[in-house]
Amino acid sequence: MTTFSMYSASIPVFKQILNSLHAILEKAEAHAADKKIDPAALLQCRLFPDMLPFTRQIQIACDFAKGAAARLGGQEVPSYEDKEVTFAELKARIVKTLDYINSVPQAQIEGSEGRAITTGSGEKTKHFVGQTYLFHYALPHFYFHATTAYDILRHNGLEIGKKDFIGSY
């Protein structure tokens, strides 16, 4: 009988998609160079005017991955300055996020199903237990922003598909 693992339900999932986003960023950078597209045009592109731009989608996906790893591991969430304006800087942010989530000991995440977790502040404060936080808040938000980043690039002609998004596992 297999037991449920909070670590297996979180960290490998974040790593898989973050690695895919890193590879997609490399393809986007090459696409922009090949098609003589100003990289800033892709980096600031949005699916709709009231949505956040591509760069912000990557930043937020990274924020949810590191935030979940920290909160589930009982650690303080590291703060990243949102200053990336190039493909190289976004790739570096993903690598930094992967390094951080890899640094959270598995033993600290295991058993966090019932850990009290609070996010936000003031009127935006939300209270969860670990499992509810992971499955109903962190993962949905992470996937939303990762998928939106993928969709922005696909919409703008980057030849990527589902396999690029899912990556290898």
Task: Give structural notes.
The chain has helices at residues 11-34, 39-43, 54-72, 87-103, 106-109, 130-155, 162-166; strands at residues 116-119, 126-129. Helix 3 packs parallel to helix 4. A two-stranded antiparallel ribbon has the order 1-2. The two termini are 22 Å apart. The chain has seven helices and two strands. The radius of gyration is 16 Å and the shape is globular. InterPro entries: DinB/YfiT-like, DUF1993. This is DUF1993 family protein.
Topology (SSEs and partners):
Layout: H1 11-34, H2 39-43, H3 54-72, H4 87-103, H5 106-109, E1 116-119, E2 126-129, H6 130-155, H7 162-166
Antiparallel strand pairs: 1-2
Helix pairs in contact: 1-3, 1-4, 1-6, 3-4, 3-6
Per CATH, the class reads Mainly Alpha
* Alpha-carbon Rg, integer: 16 Å
Shape: globular
CATH architecture heading: Up-down Bundle
Let me know the CATH homologous superfamily: dinb family like domain
Strand content: under 5%
- Give the class from helix and strand content and strand pairing: mainly alpha
The number of domains is 1
**Number of beta-strand segments:** 2
**Poorly predicted segments:** none
Biggest beta sheet attributes: 2 strands, antiparallel
Number of distinct helices: 7
What's the rounded overall pLDDT mean? 96
Helical residues, percent: 55-70%
The arrangement of helices and strands along the chain is HHHHHEEHH
Q: What is the fold named in CATH at topology level?
A: Four Helix Bundle (Hemerythrin (Met), subunit A)
For the termini, the CA-CA separation is: 22 Å
